[in-house]
Amino acid sequence: MSKVHCRQCLALELALEFPPEHALVYALSAGGVEVASAIAFFQGEPITWLQAHELSDAVAARPEVAGRAVLLVDDGLARLDEMLAAALALRNGNPARLHVITPWLNRTALARIGRVADVVTTMMIRPPRRVPYDEPADPEAAACFVRQAEELHRAVALDDAFRGESGFLQESYH
């Protein structure tokens, strides 16, 4: 099983967790797991890609942040300071709810981002350590992700109520 396939399954599971609510979708770090594209597709909304040096301009360009649900998605490559800066810039726009979504996070990052976001959703909480991006995927975990994604795909086609029952997602509410 390829790492690309595993990443696509992970993105699918995260995307299917969020029912369409036409939330605004902001994303950091194009590439990586490509979660943002799947979430934006299911939300029926375009993605606004954020660059660390243009955060306030990007948020100011979309004044409809106020009172709306906002999904801030990290495709797995953003640095913690970039994610925090983006979350703070969006928080200053007075969204009804700021939901940070990322494939993986360490406990330190979860605690720091959780002070700004209303909800943080991640697939995996790791202890703080540096991990090379090209670390080989655990075959057993990858197979599990693929099975879950296939089950979700079939279930959603039959019954939208199945969303979110996979047990992989971990959320932190603040």
Structure write-up:
The protein is an alpha/beta fold and 174 residues long. It contains six helices and six strands. The protein has a six-stranded mixed sheet, sandwiched between helices. Strand 4 (97-106), helix 5 and strand 5 (119-126) form a beta-alpha-beta unit. The longest helix has 20 residues, at 139-158. The protein is globular. The protein starts with a helix and ends with a strand.
Summarize this, please?
This protein has helices spanning 3-17, 35-43, 55-60, 80-91, 107-114, 139-158; strands at residues 24-28, 47-50, 69-74, 97-106, 119-126, 170-173.
Q: How many angstroms separate the termini?
A: 37 Å
Whole-number count of domains: 1
Architecture (CATH level 2) name: 3-Layer(aba) Sandwich
CATH topology: Rossmann fold
Uncertain spans, ≥5 residues at pLDDT below 50? 127-136, 155-169
The count of strands amounts to 6
Largest sheet: 6 strands, mixed
Structural class: alpha/beta
Radius of gyration: 16 Å
CATH class placement = Alpha Beta
Q: How much strand content do the residues show?
A: 15-25%
Q: Give me the strand/helix succession.
A: HEHEHEHEHEHE
Based on Cα principal axes, name the global outline. Answer: globular
Average pLDDT figure: 67
Strand order of the largest sheet: 2-1-3-4-5-6
Write the layout of secondary structure elements.
Layout: H1 3-17, E1 24-28, H2 35-43, E2 47-50, H3 55-60, E3 69-74, H4 80-91, E4 97-106, H5 107-114, E5 119-126, H6 139-158, E6 170-173
Parallel strand pairs: 1-2, 1-3, 3-4, 4-5
Antiparallel strand pairs: 5-6
Helix pairs in contact: 1-2, 1-6
